[in-house]
Amino acid sequence: MQVLVYGAGQLAQMMYLDGAPLGINVMAVDVSNNAVVHPVSKAPLDYTLEQAIELADALTVEFEHVPEALLQQAEASGKLHPGIDAILVGADRVREKQLLSSLAIPNCPYQIVDDLTQLDSCVENLGERLIIKASRDGYDGYGQWRLKAATELPALKSQLAELDLKAVPLVVEKMLNFDREVSLIGARSSGGEVVVYPLAENLHHEGQLHVSVAPASASTAALNDQAKDIFTKLVNGMDYVGVLAVELFQCGDELLVNELAPRVHNSGHWSQAGSPTSQFENHLRAVLDLPLGLACNTGGEAAVSAMINIIGCDDHQMALLSVPGVHFHWYGKSVRQKRKMGHINVTASSYADLGSKLQKLSEYLSLAHFPCLTDEANRLASVS
Length: 384
What we know:
Layout: E1 2-6, H1 10-19, E2 25-30, E3 35-37, H2 49-55, E4 58-61, H3 68-76, H4 84-91, H5 93-102, E5 110-113, H6 119-126, E6 130-134, E7 144-147, H7 153-160, E8 170-174, E9 180-188, E10 194-196, E11 200-205, E12 208-214, H8 221-237, E13 242-251, E14 254-261, H9 271-274, H10 279-287, E15 304-311, E16 326-330, E17 340-348, H11 351-361, H12 373-381
Parallel strand pairs: 1-2, 1-4
Antiparallel strand pairs: 2-3, 5-8, 6-7, 6-8, 9-10, 9-11, 9-13, 11-12, 12-15, 13-14, 15-17, 16-17
Helix pairs in contact: 1-10, 4-5, 11-12
């Protein structure tokens, strides 16, 4: 079996590594030059893109910002999963909001802005505390601005004045006082089989995910059911095939959708060590219409896992492998500020055990690059 992934980064690499034991060969497309490459070594393979499409049993993506012409070519093959419409929803916040509205799925109150003069009505209708997002090409905190008071509006307009809002409108959202950020990762096969992983709690710093813990602490059965209901409405409504990530804000007992990612997702990396079937394997199973694997935590109901991103640094000590339950993943990139260099997965028998392991792990890391780790370790150590 052959799968062709558009994008040649770490997500394609991890799909390759999880596909190999199943006899699934994964190739990748460098979308900057349309070259077909090995997902791990990045060495060019002896195929044209057209040959690789013909050879593949399924086509998929590792990120949503694939040039649309490539997506159209892939869609024409009849092998692209998820389909082009779902991928474009993930790449365009206007389409995303339209989808959520059409399926009556709760999300942040918002307005679409294609002229700066409309920002005044946003303040009137949504309040003076706003999150402003470019509808396309924004990620990891890029393409986002904040309005904290109406007095800041003139300066914000000046900052946004050079943007072509007719080409790329803004999505302006009410800034919510949410309790926490969580995400649900799940998969759906073309036959309609659905599995979901435990709800994960996510800690962000400067717009980037730093730590995920699954299952999220203090998650009630009602909250998990609400998240699964949102996920099921989305995947069935889009006739979706593959892994989908749903990022959510928890406001009291209500979940509001923040963003969708039509692919394997950073907040699901914990599943590599913490679940019988990783998100990467389940994505491959889904796009090839194979039976989906278990998506529960390994080790029973009390088991818990964490994922810690390594961002913009390479000064960790490999002695961190001495911490029981630690699994290290390195992407082989050159260091750059805010760049995801790798991640660390940690499995534990309880939240307190996880907190203790994170405290031990912090001894081998430069904590300036892991600003959420110590506080999260201490919090988890106190969870009963």
